[in-house]
Design a protein that fits this description.
Helix 7 links the parallel strand 6 and strand 7. The protein has a single domain, classed as Metal-dependent hydrolases (TIM Barrel), CATH 3.20.20. It has 271 residues and is of the alpha/beta class.
Length: 271
């Protein structure tokens, strides 16, 4: 196991921006054996997430309602979510969360949707992927009153203060490092990932979101004319691993091995 065996803990392969370009970079990702969690964000994209999981063994699905999309939940969304999770016994629940950054955030509704999804994940004992922006205190309040799946949950692209790190760890959190955090202005976030326990660290791209700085993108996969430099794609995962390795003072191979083992344990991938 080495740099040819990585797991992207959080990605949106079903996003139309990636689907339209997949023929250019996907064969090279398959050749390296990289795997990834494909995270749903609303009921309308769950079938596209399912299609990825059915088409390739490199994809493991998660189905959930993102806090930005709570206004799109209606009717039988809970029953639909359960049906997708039952259809895919290895699937996770995500991307769910609480977010105050979005304009006109409806926190009561966000929390209602969050709790419903969390409780379903606990009932079925599925891993959970959590999004949080500018609402870390609200998230901690929710987590302290909720049971959790046996393996814990992923707090993806954690950008909160180092002072809350231990409290989230006590709640069962794992943390995935994003290449977006390799920007010079993200020193405080880098410090969090420098201090986290080794067994709680994963790596993610969140592609096509959270584009890393240009100097930290992987240029080894394709001709820049084939994959737009401005489009964040899963092929940047190796650059994310190298960036985290630099922050921790590890070799990239050690970082790859460690984060892959942690992802296998949390999400149920075979090692």
């Amino acid at each position: 196991m080495g740099m040819d065996d990585l797991i992207d803990a959080h990605c949106h392969w079903q996003d139309p921006r990636l689907e339209s370009r997949c023929s250019e970079w996907w064969p090279q990702i398959e050749a390296r054996g990289w795997r990834g969690m494909v995270n749903g964000t609303e009921p309308d994209d769950w079938e596209r997430v399912a299609a990825w999981a059915e088409q390739t063994p490199l994809a493991k699905p998660s189905f959930g309602v993102h806090p930005w999309q709570v206004g799109r939940t209606r009717g039988d969304w809970r029953e639909r979510l359960r049906s997708f999770l039952e259809r895919f016994p290895g699937a996770g629940v995500g991307e769910i969360g609480i977010d105050k950054w979005i304009r006109d955030a409806d926190l009561p509704r966000q929390k209602e949707i969050f709790r419903a999804q969390w409780n379903l994940a606990v009932e079925l004992n599925r891993p959970i992927t959590v999004h949080c922006l500018q609402a870390f205190g609200h998230l901690l309040e929710e987590l302290r009153g909720l049971p959790r799946p046996s393996g814990g949950f992923l707090l993806h692209a954690y950008g909160g203060p180092v002072e809350l790190m231990d409290q989230f760890l006590e709640c069962g959190a794992h943390f995935s490092f994003s290449g977006y955090f390799l920007q010079d202005r993200k020193v405080a976030v880098q410090e969090v990932f420098r201090k986290l326990p080794e067994d709680r660290l994963l790596v993610e791209t969140d592609a096509p979101h959270m584009l890393p700085p240009e100097s930290c993108r992987d240029q080894s996969f394709s001709d820049p004319e084939a994959v737009e430099c401005s489009l964040h794609h899963p092929a940047n995962l190796s650059a994310v691993v190298r960036g985290l390795a630099g922050i921790r003072g590890w070799t990239p191979v050690h970082t790859a091995l460690l984060t892959t083992q942690n992802a296998c344990r949390l999400f149920g991938w075979e090692g």
